[in-house]
Design goal:
Length: 300
């Protein structure tokens, strides 16, 4: 259900009607307006069973506060069931909020839109479409990009995610990691202002995952993407993010934001540095330490 909404919500944004053709995705300087500013203030999200009796209400997120500036890469970690996916789905516009405010570039989020794209844990590709046709799918739904331009754009993105030789394969002919790269290329094809990722590498083996993380950083830098990334993996969060937001147990709210001070571009050696390991420890302490630290505190 949600996946269907994502695909249908995906439409081309800027650059797609460029008369000179689709820009080279890797080399084009990003337009400042393509990235987004997200503001969540005291967000509350409930699930209500159809009967709507008080006992059928699950309070998933309460009092969540988060600011994403343009081009930020923010990771969210937290215990299972604390409301991370719920929060992400509200930002995507799949779920309404029941309190507080949730704004993208100063406007309420009324529903799914072409300014946001989601990458899920499992690659959600259309099995009957070739890889390249999966990548162009969102552009086809938008109907403002000519087929030739859409395919050029898709080829650029497949190149960017390291799959240039696989455009004419079907998803079943790819490994899980490769499918997830196609998923990423498909999300980027619509040029989203905000990229939402819900444990996108969780089902990928550890070695491929590290490669994918580095690739994601490279892609995000090339596209100047604003990203909100949910993960259970603290090391992944520390490697990717500008800031790591730690959610409390349900109802979820952000108990601490940890600023990640490492310069970009980051490479795999960072993971072995004492500073990195100390930061991972610090986040783990917040997450598993037991106590609920002061809400909203930022540590540097
Ligand atoms: N469709 C739904 N209807 C009712 N309750 C739901 C629904 N989806 C999630 N919940 C409940 O909301 C709470 C938060 O769920 P959510 O999926 O957001 O957690 P999460 O932090 O993403 O967990 P995980 O790390 O395991 O993915 C949980 O208690 C869950 O049972
Ligand atoms: Mg989840």
């Amino acid at each position: 259900m949600l996946r269907k909404q994502t695909l249908e919500g995906a439409q081309p944004v800027r650059g797609s009607s460029d008369p000179a053709g689709s820009p080279s995705v890797a080399d084009t300087p990003a337009e400042a307006s393509r990235t987004a500013h997200l503001s969540a203030r005291n967000v509350r999200i409930e699930y209500r069973a159809p009967s709507e009796s008080a006992s059928d209400v699950t309070l998933a997120v309460d009092n969540a506060n988060l600011e994403l500036q343009r081009s930020d890469f923010v990771c969210v970690v937290g215990p299972s069931g604390c409301g991370k996916t719920t929060f992400l789905n509200a930002v995507a516009g799949f779920l309404p909020i029941h309190g507080g405010s949730l704004e993208l570039d100063g406007r309420d989020i009324p529903g799914p839109g072409p300014d946001r794209a989601m990458v899920f844990q499992q690659a959600s590709l259309l099995p009957w479409r070739k890889v390249i046709d999966n990548v162009t799918y969102g552009l086809e739904l938008g109907r403002t990009t000519k087929k030739k331009q859409a395919r050029e754009r898709a080829r650029d993105l497949l190149d960017l995610v390291g799959l240039s030789g696989f455009a004419d394969r079907y998803p079943a002919q790819l490994s899980g990691g490769m499918q997830q790269r196609v998923n990423l290329a498909r999300a980027l094809a619509v040029d989203p202002a905000l990229l939402l990722l819900d444990e996108p590498f969780a089902s990928i083996d550890a070695q491929t995952r590290e490669t994918m993380q580095a690739e994601l950083l490279r892609v995000c830098a090339a596209r100047d993407v604003t990203a909100l990334f949910v993960t259970h993996d603290i090391t992944e969060a520390a490697f990717l993010a500008d800031r790591v937001c730690v959610f409390s147990p349900r109802p979820g709210h952000i108990v601490r934001e940890v600023v990640v001070p490492f310069e970009r571009p980051r490479d795999q050696r960072l993971r072995r540095s004492p500073e990195f390991l100390a930061l991972v420890d610090e986040i783990a302490e917040t997450l598993y330490g037991g106590s609920d630290p002061t809400a909203g505190e930022v540590i540097h």
